[in-house]
Design goal:
It contains 8 helices and 4 strands; from the N terminus they run ααααββαββααα. By secondary structure, the chain is an alpha+beta fold.
Length: 210
């Protein structure tokens, strides 16, 4: 969760998080969990973590995860002049997670639109909200540019255009960039075999054949 996301959470989910980038890690083990925690601590400290806190309080953990789960609902009321574009859900190799988050922030600064980043660092999945003024065409266009460049960068890094939400309509054009023609045609063949009349979610997933 980045600092902007923490700020939004504090404002609308009644949390008391530091306005700093954070990582939530949950440990489970039948034995030796303390060793795992200490190993994790050494990794974070090697990367200049400012604070490393440990809790075994069930209520505290529930509150943290609840804040993370409900975070997406907090952006709409955060600023009366701004609304999030369609939520993004790209995924990159874990080794490139920092790169894509930094890139999102750079794009936001470049195009003067706030970008929130949060997600599932453990599998390289990042959700991003690009905040725009829906009544300002220039703001919307800038937000769409940021989102487009983020998806393209994720694919360049060996990742995927969508980690959870699916291709649908909005990301059809990225399918051919992510996969070669033969792979996309194999997908089409499976779809035709299962849906010869084209009645199941028509015009979704695949780039137009027109």
């Amino acid at each position: 969760m980045d600092a902007f996301s923490a700020e939004v959470s504090n404002a609308f989910l009644d949390t008391n998080l530091p306005d700093k980038p954070m990582v939530f890690v949950e440990f489970h083990a039948n034995y030796g969990v303390e060793n795992e925690i200490e190993f994790c601590r050494t990794v974070f400290e090697a990367h200049d973590v400012q604070r490393f806190e440990v809790s075994d309080n069930d209520q505290e953990m529930r509150e943290l995860w609840e804040a993370r789960r409900e975070l997406a609902e907090a952006f709409e009321p955060y600023d009366r002049d701004l609304s999030p574009l369609t939520p993004g859900d790209i995924t990159v190799p874990i080794s490139n997670y920092t790169d894509i988050v930094n890139y999102a922030k750079e794009l936001g600064d470049e195009h003067s639109v706030p970008v929130a980043c949060f997600g599932h660092a453990g599998d390289g999945n990042i959700h991003y909200f690009v905040m725009v003024n829906p009544d300002d065409p220039d703001s919307v266009a800038a937000g769409e540019t940021v989102s487009k460049k983020l998806v393209e960068r994720a694919i360049e890094l060996g990742g995927t255009a969508t980690g959870e939400h699916g291709i649908g309509i909005g990301k059809r054009d990225y399918l051919a960039r992510e996969y070669n023609d033969a792979t996309v045609e194999s997908m089409r063949a499976i779809k035709r075999a299962l849906d010869p009349n084209g009645i199941l979610n028509p015009r979704k997933i695949f780039p137009s054949e027109e």
